[in-house]
Amino acid sequence: MFALACATQTHRPAAVTDQCAPNVVPLADHHQHLVSRAGVALLYPQPLDGTALPDELARVVSEIESRWNDPAALAKLMTDAAVVRTDAGAGWARGRAAASEALGTLFARPYRITPVAFGREEHTAHVEGFSRAARARRENTSAHFNSC
Questions:
Q1: Extents of the domains making up the chain
Q2: Burial of residue 147, with CB atoms counted within 10 A of its CB: 0-12 exposed, 13-18 middle, 19 or more buried
């Protein structure tokens, strides 16, 4: 369709060219209207609402946030069962060393953790959630984690 528009405007045969004449200017950007609201929700799922944590777990999450760029310090907070989504969704980092390294090198700036679920059994607990830049105006899922 673009090649045809170029050819029509410049009176050349309808052939694909690398560049149109300078006087050809698009009047509308129609690709913005091809997806319905329901389609946008499927293509770009929004993060879950956060949930309040018990004080003990909230303190651990706060410690993780404060040690955001220090894998060695994060390792002291992790267990061997820790799981963290790696950069760009390339996979999962499992275990204390891999999870703390992934989480401690993921962001260039501080971030906030939004817990979406947690559970406790006797002497163990787990938190699932996502993280976002500390100064972000809106929630943006950047990392997913499950920490025990």
A1: 2-34, 55-147
A2: buried
* Residue 90: both structure tokens together: 């390339």
Rounded distance between C-alpha atoms, residue 125 and residue 146, angstroms: 10
CB-hemisphere CA count at 13 Å for 43? 7
Residue-wise pLDDT for 24-75, tens only, equals 666 665 555 566 777 777 777 777 788 999 999 999 999 999 998 999 999 9
Angle made by CA atoms 40, 43, 44, in degrees to the nearest 5? 80
Single-letter amino acid, residue 74: L
Within 8 A by CB and 6+ apart from 50, the residues are: 114, 115, 116, 129
Span 90-103, pLDDT tens digits: 788 999 999 999 88
Q: What is the reported pTM?
A: 0.59
DSSP conformation class of 88 = G
Q: Does domain 55-147 have CATH number 3.10.450?
A: yes
For the chain, the straight-line distance linking the first and the last C-alpha, in angstroms and rounded, comes to 55
